[in-house]
Amino acid sequence: MSLLCTKDKKDLPKTYYDLMRSAVLLFKQGSMVEGWHVLSKAFDLVKPILKSVNVRALNSFWTSLILLVQSDHAAIVELLIRQIYDMARILLQPGHPVMQMFKLLTQASMSELEDLVHNTWQVTTDAFQKQLPKLHPEYVRHQCDLIYRVYGTRDAAAAEQRLRQLLKDCEDNTPQTLELSHMTVLNALGYNLMNSNDWVQAVNIGQQLEEHARVAEEETGDNLLVYQIGGMEIQARAFNEMKLIMPATKCLRQAMPLIAERWGNDDPWRVELMVLLQTWLRENGQIEAVDELKADISSITERINTNSDV
Q1: Confidence category of residue 114, pLDDT binned at 50, 70, 90
Q2: In terms of C-beta distances under 8 Å and separation of at least 24 residues, what long-range contacts does 10-13 make, across chains too?
Q3: Dist. CA 136–CA 131, nearest whole Å
Q4: Distance CA 113, CA 254 (A)
Q5: CB 10 within 8 A of CB 56
Q6: C-alpha distances in angstroms, 16 versus 12, 25, 232?
Q7: Which of 4, 47, 150, 211 has its CA 20 to 30 A from that of 197?
Q8: Share above pLDDT 70 across residues of the chain, in percent, rounded to a whole number
Q9: Could you give the CA distance from residue 159 to residue 155 in angstroms, rounded to a whole number?
């Protein structure tokens, strides 16, 4: 799989996964129409992602499948696997690894699926390890996602140990190119600490990530806002688990305008944070604010479903 692609094509896997996360949250809170609008757009992105020969394509597919399996959306998992396989048969060469992997997944039962995705994801990560330097950002991204999304849900302590070793490796190397790897590990560590229910440490890591990204962007001029907002989201989720609704919602309210300013009001990540905010406000009886958010979310998800540029 080629490592070369345009900036817009590089953004496709992230947009796809943000759509998937938003859809799962919408389904969870009972917003079925809005959820299907967003999910439909995610399915539409499978074809351009495969056509882009994007290094992040497989990672985005693995993460979305694990998310859907762990959220008990078996029917959607089957639809997605079939969609990816059918598109791969049209767009890729017969022996292409993506087609072979997804052909195998079409033949698996739901009880086998999570382990099978785990194993094929590990094979993908091992292949990147052979092709890329140890701390290359793309290898680290694959490794971190696999560790905290799969291993971390089974043995959070062992996953934390692996992530902290990766973090130490990043900190022991100083080249600027490793900044992305460093922040990717911090992000994964924050989420893995939530696998351990260690909410206080998760907040601390989220704060570190937010500040590190802000300072690094000011010093280098690189676009690191995604990591800054990622740190804010980690803090928000951990604060909410501690029943600290005011700092939790504050983090989300600070993050959403940043997303809108950089990527637009209809960005799927902004929708995801809006849905989180709506859920938390409802749980705390703030009905008027919930109704305003619901109307806004419905309008955005309908536009997302009909907008070919998203």
Answers
A1: confident
A2: 10/54, 10/56, 12/45, 12/48, 12/49, 12/52, 12/54, 13/49, 13/54, 13/56, 13/57, 13/59, 13/60
A3: 10
A4: 38
A5: yes
A6: 6, 15, 21
A7: 211
A8: 94
A9: 6
Average pLDDT, the chain: 89
Looking up tokens 């990560």 gives 125
At residue 266, what are phi and psi to the nearest 5 degrees? -95, 10
197-214 pLDDT, tens digit per residue, is 999 999 999 999 999 999
Query: Which residue in the block uniquely carries the two structure tokens 């739901």?
Result: 110
Q: CA-to-CA distance for 179 and 184, rounded, in angstroms?
A: 9
Complete DSSP assignment for 87-99: HHHHHS-TT-HHH
Tokens (6 digits) for 50: 């495969």
Rounded (10°) angle between helices 97-106 and 110-131 = 170
Which positions ≥6 away from 28 have C-beta within 8 Å? 71, 279
Instruction: Name every residue whose Cβ is closer than 8 Å to that of residue 185 and which is 6 or more positions away in sequence.
Output: 140, 144, 163, 166, 167, 170
Please give the structure tokens belonging to residue 78.
């089957």
**Two tokens, residue 94:** 């017969």
Burial class (CB in 10 A: 0-12, 13-18, 19+), 174: exposed
Residues contacting 163, CB < 8 A, separation 6+: 144, 147, 148, 185, 188, 189, 192
CA separation for the pair 295, 299 (Å, rounded): 6
Q: 10 Å Cβ neighbour count for 292?
A: 12
Q: Is 289 exposed, middle or buried (0-12, 13-18, 19+ CB in 10 A)?
A: middle
pLDDT band at residue 122 under the 50/70/90 scheme: confident
Q: Which candidate, 114, 120, 40, 24, places its Cα nearest to that of 73?
A: 24
As a whole number of angstroms, the distance between CA 212 and CA 208 comes to 6
